[in-house]
Known about the structure:
The chain has helices spanning 32-55, 59-71, 76-83, 87-99, 121-142, 147-168, and strands spanning 103-107, 115-119. The chain is mainly α. The chain folds into two domains: 1-30, no CATH class; 32-144, Winged helix-like DNA-binding domain superfamily/Winged helix DNA-binding domain (Arc Repressor Mutant, subunit A).
Amino acid sequence: MDESSGAAPRRRGERPEDCEAGPSGFSLAGFLPYRLSVATNRISRAFARRYSQRFGLSIAEWRVLAVLGSFAPLSSNEICERTAMDKAKVSRAVALLTGKGLVDRAAHPSDQRLLRLSLSAQGQATFEAVVPIAQRLEAELLEGLSAEERALLERCLDHLDGAVRRLETGGT
């Protein structure tokens, strides 16, 4: 934040008035949670444009498919934990993916009340077809960053994830 003007530093594509602090002294444009949320939403939409028409998947469905493709079998609760998506959104995505024949449900071996979710053969094939699209997008996003900058970004994301986990559990 520019101490003299009370404005956050201007970022590419921002109008000068977007960086000004309001009457409270708060600048939304410089607020980290807001910036991360906006960037995440933009990245998710850019990625969805690349796979949604071809594969008929929503952003939520892709997230569930990706987690199951990487860590299955999982319960719905475990998917919620890994994606930070709410239970209702995960439940809807699982129901849609099951209806499309991409996800299989099976009873948990030691607790029949629980369902274990995994990809069907068709789901695995879809996952494997979308992964290269995801990898190309990631490469485009990271293009222009040096190896050191990429490593720093990873460390910063790990730090933020740890900080959020501490906040969620009431730790300091």
